[in-house]
Write a structure and sequence with these properties.
The structure holds two protein chains of two kinds.
Chain A lengths: L5 E15 L6 E16 L3 E5 L6 H8 L7 E6 L2 E2 L5 H10 E4 L13 H11 L9 H11 L4 H4 L9 H13 L5 E5 L7 H18 L2 E6 L2 H7 L2 E6 L2 E7 H6 L4 H9 L41 H5 L20
Parallel strand pairs in A: 3-8, 3-9, 6-7, 7-8
Antiparallel strand pairs in A: 1-2, 1-4, 4-5, 9-10
Chain B lengths: L3 E12 L2 E13 L4 E5 L6 H9 L8 E8 L2 E2 L5 H10 L1 E4 L3 H4 L6 H13 L3 H14 L5 H4 L9 H12 L6 E5 L7 H18 L2 E6 L2 H7 L2 E6 L2 E7 H6 L4 H9 L38 H5 L5 E2 L5 E2 L4 H8 L1
Parallel strand pairs in B: 3-8, 3-9, 6-7, 7-8
Antiparallel strand pairs in B: 1-2, 1-4, 4-5, 9-10, 10-12, 11-12
The chains are: A alpha/beta, B alpha/beta.
């Protein structure tokens, strides 16, 4: 059983998707989308997960909330295991772990009003609140996320801007007072001038409600801003995790350093002065990942050891999965 | 002579409740060998401006007014045939979505060779040789073999390179890149931006970069035009804009962006959302979201006025904005 302040414990989580072969009824290998990921999420903290497309971060998100069955490994919440829970336990778990999705245009039912969308969680979990008090709670939720209950309750999703829709998605995730909200790219579909509103809202809600976030995104700047701790994912594995400041200021994995150096900084004065590591090529296919260290095919300091031995993610405050970690 | 000059460009599309004014009087210049970034978010009119320059807007239904001059020659009134020759040979464009811009049923070599044979009258062998050179130029390994591949056989970053190869195949004077790296991962984005900058340096062409990404602008642009609601609200060199914005919208954008190299406690958030181009507010289009708005802003549209040091701002209170950062 996880320690007192750990709200979600992920143990060696694996998800392999089988591929169909060219010949019917044969196998065409597996996509190793998530391949052994472990971490703890503490009460009220934000864990950022960064990685490029195809690294498995969305599959991870879906497993955390029970939308995807892992091939092996476990997600523990208190005394329960998310994917083994059934019946009443499962329903209870679903209340405690919620998700906010990337695209606010497709994640709200276009034929339902905001009132209906926000009442739905209480219809699924009627024990949470008496019928008579639900509408008041929906009004509170709208106010909490910065919308106007008088004006907005009976409108349809298409009558809102992208930022407002994402607020509605957040209100829905908050309705059942969860302990954990998994945010899968919550601001990347929004206009630049609106992103900060939603980021600030998520931070304020955490301060007020003490909810923990797993914040999954490809935007390293946004992740730095919102996270207490950050995990870097590459081809289905975590390569480095650590406190926000330590990971961003002294990255120890070559991939993390390359990733950070590639992010443009909005300061023309430092143009050309920052050292940029240009990685060759694209990430390899998760169907046939490289032997040993998965990053070695793009790494400038790889040796034979890297091809034969997979570096483990050691324990500690700022662990790194590399045979030759960079000096701090 | 100025390479590209746009004067009072206006583009409107018919909408269900009246015209949608996508571009409302844009004037700008792109000089040869320089990069002008047009910075704006969705609905700001930045892509429509680019499409009007490229001549790929259907008019009608679109209504285009104003002037677009390439080396002094007016493009908007040219007959279709001459216009088409210019877009392609003298102006080329790179799009965000290479998968949609390339033809999926022809090999990439075929597509590059076709351009060279039709436009330059090259023989098949010459065109193939040149296609290999171009694919090699955009740093695709084993170019000789890869030109026999179809677009879907390339990764996203590689497809973007193919589109750049296609765009520079006729050695254009002006390259328009519309969000060329938005769909790419950050490590690949850095490779592609580097490549574009290098080609631009070597060829001396003018580059018009359409983007919403302040970081990309800071890294590659010489000059910047910030667009909001179909208008340019601020213009200047990249240093001027980032060191001391002269428009509250630019000021807000810069303050609202988290940084990878340091942590700020609270982000400034611009309230509200960008306006719908079909129902623009009266006065300054930004006044509903502006912390500096006064009665004047609600009534009178501020013109794009010249400021010292060659920059421009469309704000009644630009002096106050400039003073705020000092």
């Amino acid at each position: 059983m996880p320690g007192d302040d750990v709200v979600l414990r992920v143990e060696n989580l694996v998800k392999h998707f089988p591929l169909k072969g060219r010949i019917p009824f044969t196998s065409g290998g597996v996509v190793k989308a998530v391949d052994g990921v472990s971490f703890d999420l503490r009460r009220g903290e934000t864990l950022g997960v960064v990685g490029e497309s195809g690294c498995g971060k969305s599959t991870l998100a879906r497993m955390l909330v029970g939308l995807e069955q892992p091939t092996s490994g476990a997600v523990r919440f208190g005394t329960s295991i998310v994917h083994q829970a059934r019946g009443r336990d499962l329903r209870a778990l679903r209340r405690r772990i919620q998700i906010v999705l990337q695209d606010p245009y497709t994640s709200l039912n276009p034929r339902r009003t905001i009132r209906e969308i926000l009442l739905q969680p209480f219809e699924i979990h009627p024990e949470v609140l008496d019928r008579g008090r639900r509408l008041d709670r929906v009004r509170e939720l709208l106010e909490l996320v910065g919308l106007d209950p008088h004006l907005h309750l009976d409108r349809y999703p298409h009558q809102f801007s992208g930022g407002q829709r994402q607020r509605i998605g957040i209100a829905r995730a908050l309705a059942l007072q969860p302990d954990v909200i998994v945010c899968d790219e919550p601001v990347s579909a929004l206009d630049v001038s609106v992103q900060a509103q939603v980021v600030n809202l998520l931070e304020r809600l955490q301060d007020e409600l003490g909810v923990a976030y797993v914040f999954i995104a490809h935007d390293l700047s946004v992740v730095r801003h919102i996270s207490d701790r950050v995990a870097v994912m590459y081809l289905g594995k975590l390569v480095e995790t650590g406190p926000e400041a330590s990971l961003y200021d002294t990255p120890r994995h070559p991939y993390t350093r390359a990733l950070l150096s590639a992010v443009p900084v909005p300061e023309p004065a430092v143009r050309g002065e920052r050292q940029r590591i240009l990685l060759p090529g694209d990430p390899p296919s998760p169907v046939d990942p490289p032997s040993g260290c998965r990053f070695r095919t793009r790494c400038w300091q790889a040796t034979e050891t890297c091809a034969t031995t997979e570096p483990p993610l050691a324990a500690g405050a700022h662990p790194v999965a590399c045979h030759y970690p960079l000096a701090a | 002579m100025t390479l590209l000059e746009i004067a009072d460009l206006r583009v409107a599309f018919p909408g269900p409740t009246g015209p949608v004014n996508a571009v409302n009087g844009v004037s700008l210049e792109v000089e040869a060998g320089r990069t002008l970034a047009i910075l704006g978010e969705s609905g700001s009119g930045k892509s429509v401006t680019a499409q009007a320059v490229m001549g790929i807007l259907d008019a009608p239904p679109a209504r285009i007014d104003g002037a677009v001059r390439l080396r002094g020659r007016e493009l908007l009134t040219l007959p279709r045939k001459q216009r088409d020759r210019i877009s392609g040979e003298e102006i080329a464009m790179v799009f965000q979505d290479a998968m949609a811009a390339l033809n999926p049923v022809y090999t990439v070599g075929h597509q590059i060779m076709e351009v060279l044979r039709v436009r330059r009258g090259m023989s098949k062998a010459d065109a193939r040789r040149r296609a290999v050179e171009l694919v090699d130029r955009v740093r695709i390994p084993a170019a000789k073999d890869r030109i026999r591949d179809y677009p879907h056989q390339f990764s996203g970053g590689m497809r973007q390179r193919i589109m750049i190869a296609l765009a520079i195949s006729l050695e254009p004077d002006l390259l328009i890149a519309d969000e060329p790296t938005t769909a790419l991962d950050v490590t690949v984005q850095a490779q592609v931006m580097e490549l574009l900058a290098e080609i631009q340096r070597d060829s001396g062409m003018g580059l018009m970069l359409i983007t919403h990404d302040l970081g990309v602008v800071a890294e590659v642009a010489d000059d910047v035009a910030v667009m909001y609601a179909g208008r340019i609200v601020e213009r200047g060199t990249v240093g001027q804009i980032f060191d001391g914005p002269a428009h509250p919208y630019t000021e807000g954008l810069l303050a609202s962006m988290p940084r990878v190299d340091r942590r700020d406690d609270v982000l400034y958030a611009i309230p509200g959302a960008p306006p719908n181009p079909a129902q623009l507010p009266t006065g300054c289009p930004f006044h509903l979201r502006c912390p500096r708005a006064t009665d004047e802003c609600r009534v009178t549209l501020p013109p794009l006025a010249a400021l010292p040091a060659g920059r421009e701002s469309a704000c009644h209170h630009y002096e106050e904005v400039l003073g705020a950062r000092r």
